[in-house]
């Protein structure tokens, strides 16, 4: 029984990290990460080899497919870039927990045939997790059911991005205002389709408000663990200053209710720089 927790990035100016091996330092705090950098281009294989070398075997990467696949070509005629991407991230091995298919907000229920064809033809050695942002998938039960059935047939997971806490009150900081402009306003999902559900949760700059908003998610994860599932939860805030601490705090909250849950690693201390 294992719960993986992490953040949307593995480095932040506010986090205590050494100048080098920042990923290794991050991996001493939590056991998963969203690989958002891969959205902007296929990484060099040497870079991915470094990622693998800095993380333990049970660390989880959820690697986002490059935008050329999901946004520019919208899953059409993507055999070449997909295989190039899969080859680039191959050094992660089992650390590559899922290929994250984040689709643009314009990807509507009418486009489900394209997603179905992609998942049918995708290499089976990878797990796939799909994130949609079109409001119809959350507001129209028929559209939601159609997507669920498609994903179930493919053995893929639906990745919800829970933004309700973020939008629960007016923005009070520049970071929250920026998040209000960029993050999707979609309904909350609490259904797991596979044994490895993934949830992205974004709170607010206020730690108490963020913690209060995730109470339902703690209970949900406890239930999933009881069903034998192995969830991965990513904790965000608008500025992400406290995200690393919040991820550990979330894990601790679940462990209070599931004492048999494995522990997170002990963070590596970062010594202040010296002159000698």
From TrEMBL:
InterPro entries: DUF72 (IPR002763), UPF0759_sf (IPR036520)
Transmembrane segments: none
PANTHER family associated with the record: UNCHARACTERIZED PROTEIN YECE, UPF0759 PROTEIN YECE
Name assigned to this protein: DUF72 domain-containing protein
Species whose genome carries this gene: Kribbella sandramycini
């Amino acid at each position: 029984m294992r719960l993986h927790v992490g953040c949307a990035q593995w480095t932040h100016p506010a986090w205590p990290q050494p100048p080098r091996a920042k990923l290794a330092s991050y991996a001493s705090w939590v056991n998963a990460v969203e690989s958002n950098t891969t959205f902007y281009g296929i990484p060099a294989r040497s870079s991915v080899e470094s990622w693998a070398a800095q993380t333990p075997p049970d660390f989880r990467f959820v690697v986002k497919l490059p935008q050329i696949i999901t946004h520019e070509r919208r899953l059409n005629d993507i055999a070449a870039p997909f295989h190039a991407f899969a080859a680039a991230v191959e050094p992660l091995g089992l650390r590559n927990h899922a290929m994250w298919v984040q689709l643009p907000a314009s990807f509507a229920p009418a486009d489900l045939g394209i997603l179905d064809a992609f998942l049918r033809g995708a290499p089976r050695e990878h797990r796939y997790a799909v994130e949609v942002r079109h409001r119809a998938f959350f507001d129209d039960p028929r559209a939601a059911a159609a997507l669920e059935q498609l994903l179930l047939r493919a053995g893929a997971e639906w990745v919800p991005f829970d933004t309700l806490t973020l939008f629960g009150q007016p923005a009070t900081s520049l970071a929250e205002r920026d998040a209000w402009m960029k993050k999707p306003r979609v309904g909350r999902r609490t259904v797991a389709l596979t044994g490895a559900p993934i949830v992205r949760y974004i709170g607010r700059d206020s730690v108490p408000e963020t913690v209060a908003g995730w109470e339902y998610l703690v209970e949900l994860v406890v239930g999933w663990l009881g069903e034998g599932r192995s969830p991965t939860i990513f904790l965000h805030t608008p500025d992400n200053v406290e995200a690393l601490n919040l991820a550990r705090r979330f894990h601790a909250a679940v462990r209070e209710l599931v004492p048999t849950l494995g522990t997170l690693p002990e963070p590596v201390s970062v010594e202040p720089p010296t002159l000698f």
